User: Fold this.
Amino acid sequence: MPIHEKSLIRPENLTTHDELVIDGVDVSGHWSTFIESRVVSDYNEKLEDEIAALPGGEQIHRCWQCGSCTNSCTVNAINPDFNPRYWIYLIRMGMESELLRDKDIIWQCVSCNKCTYACPRDVFPEGVMKATSHWLERKGHTEKSPSMHFDEVFTEQVLKTGKIEESRTIRGFFKRTGQSLMQPWMVEMTKRMLRGLPVGLLTRMGLATLVAPKTRDWSAAKAAMQDYIDEQHEKQEQALSS
Amino acid sequence: MTKKDKYQKVAYYPGCALEGTGHSYNRSTKAVGKALGLDLVEVENWNCCGAMEVKNVDPKLQTYLSSRVMSTAANEMDMDVVMAPCNGCYHNLKKAEYDLKHDPESVEVVSKLSQKAGHKTYEAGQVETIHALDWIKDTVGEEGLKERVKNSLNGIKVANYYGCMYTRPRHIFPEKDQGPGSESTSKPHFMDDLLAAAGAENVEFPLKTACCGGAHTLSDSDTSTKLVLNILKAAKLAGADVIATECPTCHSGLEMHQIRAEKVLGETVDIKILYFTQLLGVALGLKPRKVGVHENVSDSRGFLKERGLA
Ligand code: SF4
Ligand code: SF4
Ligand code: SF4
Ligand code: SF4
Assistant:
C-alpha cells in the first residue's frame, strides 16, 4: 500500500518572477523560484488537552506518528488532504492555525475504524476525529456539519421515543439542513421501493410514519439521559474555556 | 454447554432498521430460523441501541442504551444469548459489553442511568451477543445446511460483503481471530461458508470489509456514492452476479447509492443485492416472497426466476 503524504510546501509560498534579471543573469520563470519561509508563532498550548477533554479524544497523547491510520484510511483514499496522522501531529504540537486550514473536511471521517484497527498504540483515531470536529464546532471555527445535524436529529428522536423511525429521522434531517426531499435520486429510489410492495405492507409502513414506534415506560430513562447530557456538556464547556 | 445447544433458542434483537428499510432482512431471518428449527424470542419492549449517531453525541449514552437491551434479555427474560442481525446493533452491544467489562467509568454511568430509569443494571457477562451469522453457523452449520438444501444455489456467483462494524475495531470481538472455526477480522468467511454450503460459488472479493460510507450516507452523499461504486465495481470485476449482505444499513447503502450513482454520476453497475438470509431462504425451498425479495429496492425477482430459484 502506498504511503500518502502531504507536501510541506504550499503553493502560495512559492514565488516566481516571469521576468527577472539579476546581475545580468536572466532568471525568469522557474529559475527564480523562491520558497518563502514560514514562521510559526501561534502555538496553542492547550489544544491537545482540549481535544482530550472531548469524548473520543482521550488517548491522543499515545500517538507516535507511525502513519498507519492515514495509510489505512477510507477517506484518505479519495481525498489525500484527509490526513488523521497529520492532524494528530498538529494538535499535539498546538499548531492551531495550521489545523484550521483543514477545518471543513475533518467531519467527513466515515467512522469505518480502519485506523483503529491499524493503530499500534490504541489511540482510537476515529474518536480523535470526532473529538476534533466537535472542538471545531464548539469553538465556533465551523458551522455545525451536516453529520452533526443528523446525529442530533437522531439522538433527539431516540431520547423522545426510545426508537428510530427512519423516514421521520430523514425528514427531520432534510428539514434542519434546509434541503429538499425531492432530489431526483431519492424520488427514483422511492419509486423502485414501492414497485414490488403489496398494499398491506405499504399501509403498515405508512402507519409507522404516522404513529412512531415507541418503547413503553420510557420517560424515566429519557429524563436520566437528558440530565446526563447536560452534566457532560457543562463539564466539557469548563474544559474548553479554562 | 456447546454453542450448538446454547444458540438453539436466543433472544432476538431486531433493532429499528429491521422494522423499517430492513424489513425484508427481518422477515427472511425469521423465516430461515423457522425452516432450520431454531427458536427466536424477541426482546421485550426493546429500545434503539444508540447506533453511531448517539455515540457521536456521547459514547457512554450509547453504552447505556445498548446495556438496557441486554439487561431486559438477561433480567426480565432470563436469556443468556442475544442475537442481532444488524451489524450496527451487534457492534454496539459488543462494544457496551467490552466497555462494561473494562472501563469503570462506563460501569458507573450505566448503573446510575439504569437506577434512575428504574430497571436492573446490566452486568458484563450476563449475556453473550451474537450475529445472525454465528447463530446459523454454530447451530445448523454447513453440514446441516447441505442436508436441508432443496434448491441449490449452484451456478450463482456471490461476493460476500460484511462492511465495517462486523469486524472493527477488533478489541470488541474477543472471540474472533482465535484460530480454526473462529471468524477472522481481516478476511471474514462465515457468510461465505454458509452460502457455499447452499451451493453458491463465492468469488474472490477484496472489498469484503470495505466501508460504504454509511455514516454520512445522507450528510455527505457524494463520498458515500464513490465508496459504494468501488464496492459494486469490484464485485462485478470479480465476476459476481450477487452481492450478499448481512446488515440492513450496508444493504440499503448499496441499494441507495447504486441508484444515486446511476442518477447523479451516470454510472450503472448491474449487480443484484440480496441479504444472505434471502439467499439461504430460497435455497431451503422458501418462496422469494416469503423472504421479502419483493421488498428490496434492487429488483432480483427476474434473476431468481431465471436461475430456477423462484
Ligand atoms: S496509527 Fe495510531 S500511532 Fe500511528 S499515527 Fe495513527 S494514531 Fe498515531
Ligand atoms: S474512521 Fe475515519 S479516520 Fe479512521 S480510517 Fe475511517 S475514515 Fe479514516
Ligand atoms: S443499529 Fe440501527 S437498527 Fe440497530 S438499534 Fe441501532 S439504530 Fe436501530
Ligand atoms: S459498510 Fe457502511 S453501513 Fe455497513 S457498517 Fe460500514 S459504514 Fe456502516
Observations:
- Residues 3-131 of chain B form a domain with the Glutathione S-transferase Yfyf (Class Pi); Chain A, domain 2 fold (CATH 1.20.1050.140).
